Amino acid sequence: MTDPSPEATQITNLQQELALYKSKYYTLLNNVRESVAIYKPIKDGSDFQIINLNPSACQTEHVSFEDVKGGSLIETFPGVEQFGLLEILKNVWKSGNAQKFPLRMYQDERIQGWRDNFIFKMPGNEIVAVYEDKTAEKQLIQDLEITKALLNQTLQQSPDGLIIADANSKKILFINQIAVSLLGIESKSVVNLNQIDGFWDIFDKNRNPVAVNEYPLIKAINGQFTKPETLLIKRSSDSKEFWCEAKGYPIFNEKGKIFAGCFLFSDITEKINFRQKVKMLAKFPEENPFPVMRISMDGKVLFHNKASSPLLKKWNFDGEFLNSEEVINPLDAMKMESKIVQLNVDVKALTFFVIFIPIPDSNMINIYAYDISEIKMLSKFPEQNPNPVIRLDRNGFVKYHNKASLPLLQFWGFRNHNIYAAEILQELTKVHNTSKIGKVETQIGEKFYSIFLKSIENTDLINLYALDITEKVKTTQNFIKSQERYYNLFYNMLDGYAYHAIILNEHGSPIDYEFIDINPAFTEMTGITREMAIGKKVTQIVPNIKDDTVDWIGTYGKVALSGKSITFENFSQGLNKHFAVSSYCPERGYFVTVFRDITEQKRLSKEIEDLNQDLEVRIQQRTLKLEAVNRELETFSYSVSHDLRAPLRGIDGFSQAILEDYNNVLDETGQDYLRRIRSGVQRMGDLINDMLQLSRLTRMELHKASVNLSSIAQDIIDDLFTADPERQIKIKIQKDLIHFCDYQLIRSVLQNLLENAWKFTQNTLNPQIEFGKMLLDEQITFFVRDNGAGFDMNYYNKLFGTFQRLHSVNEFEGTGIGLATVQRIIHKHGGSIRAEGKVNEGATFYFTLN
């Protein structure tokens, strides 16, 4: 017999390996707790053929795999289209992207239950649905919600205010609507007992303050039962007061340990006020708007006022005696024991609160009555309930509804006393004459409601209660959005992020920490992947971490246990990178580290440092050169001043001598030429002076101080008036314009600008000059404004040029260097200057100072 060929051996091995993998696959498929269904698209993806159902899926769907194998999904599971799963299968088959199909209820004629699905596509084009039957869990949650709702409704229907607080945490667990209304607070305003003295104050029946530790609720959580007592509660929100009968008692668990305290109180303000009114009004019985009577013990009427007529008629008054058991019974009780008797008496549409008060040492009784019809009407719970309450029959015919239910009724198409909403009618049929409690959740506009339906025993009626769960739904939605935003940030942030749990020894000292989660940026920075890190200890990932010069476990342990954040920089030798690290504690025992790669930043910082050092050397070198140039310029300026002035003085002097010595020889034309020569020489002297001043300004150092610009401007204007006292001109200078600047230089600026304004308004009727301050583009701006000659804005570019003039010398004198000087001074202060003007309408110069 020949040995098998290598190819045959390889095929045999592959077959064995394939058989092993198939065995593992089916073992896993048949033993997982989750339900698994495998489908193949048919009819171009409009339906799916059942390829496999694991035992868990068969049990969930109440089918046998042999019965459904190869069948159509739509035919096998009627209602799957309405369930929405078919559309999800199509999307996954077409896109190849896995999808989660959130918790939904599926039902057909066989089954009804909640499913939570995850659908993905296999390489072989099969579609796999992995899902869990959440029916029992959902039913438990529904039962819990119903129980909570019924308990809440029961507590809410209590005619007394009720507050329950946790004995350990001191947190308020429950406040019913009556308590909220009486105390004038929102149910979520008070969350802890240490806040209650900020919301209301309590006084005893003599109006003496009650200490907080003597409050019935505080005593109750400390295990004390308090007897009913009359207390006055004053609300902090609006200072309103009400009297109440209150008591406190502890609530024990099955082991006899206190776990909560209860404060129960009822509003007796009306009764107390009534008693006070009775005392006051009884002095004026005829004027009293309420019934007042005096009778004897045998029911004989000794006195009654006009307001007593309805009660007299109700009690069959025969002109002498009252003949009604409503009176006889209280009288019999009072004969046996002298005490006050109180009762409510209905007279047609009215209800009176009646009080019988025996007169001491006599056989007479005073009767006082107070109309409480309005109070009685308001005390009907459904009308007062802020939540919808409806009573209806199984066909949707509404027998009763309160005001709060109107939005629901309108939404359900309420007309002719009937509602026509299919979802409600369906639930009515389900719960009718059963002990079941139906539940429906619906949305109306921006509000969400949870609706409970309960059949009234031995009747054809059903009570419907609705709870506004808008806040709960929106909180859940916001939480989901917040989670989405968090994970979007978490997975896309550029900084490395790692979440850890600290590990302690038996003494409570940190000995290690575990990786709970890391983001992709952390992996990119460190090379540590999620597979390497999640669930692992740092000593497993970095075995030599304890040999590092820094005690990382101890450092992060302090953060996790103390809650104090830290920030530092670290250089990793292994990664050859610099990191900026911050660590904080999200909750005790955990810490987060956020890493930022600052290697490039460090490199650039070093380059900048080197450049700054090089720049400093260059600045020193240029400063020396600049000082040398300035010295040369000073020498040159001196030479210009000395060398140019000497010949100018000569020209001016000889011209003057000729005019004086040869006056008779020269004709008028010759004399005019000499006068023009002298004028040109003097103008040349002025130009040399202005040039030297401009040169000095360029080299001057600033000596800044707090300067009053208003005072300088006033001095300059005073000098101008001294030189030209006949001038009629209106001056306006804003007071106390203070700025930090160089006094001498700013004086030069204001002198140039104000002298220009003085000069250019000399031919103007009603001339005006103004100096002030305003805010332009959020920056303090000074201005000098006049209504003089102005200038053409087309030549604005020449305005601040050296020796540039926009008016002839014949019109206005000057060298054309003043505004160039002003501009250099302003720039030297780090500011800016600009001007606006119009011919014959004036000009305004705006300047800022850094």
From TrEMBL:
Residues 639-850 form the Histidine kinase domain. It catalyses: ATP + protein L-histidine = ADP + protein N-phospho-L-histidine. Gene3D superfamilies: 1.10.287.130, Histidine kinase-like ATPase, C-terminal domain, PAS domain. Its EC number is 2.7.13.3. The keyword Plastid does not apply. It comes from the Archaea. NCBIfam families: sensory_box (TIGR00229). This is histidine kinase. It is an enzyme of class 2 (transferase). It comes from Candidatus Lokiarchaeum ossiferum. GO terms for molecular function: transferase activity. Residues 147-224 form the PAS domain. Residues 226-280 form the PAC domain.
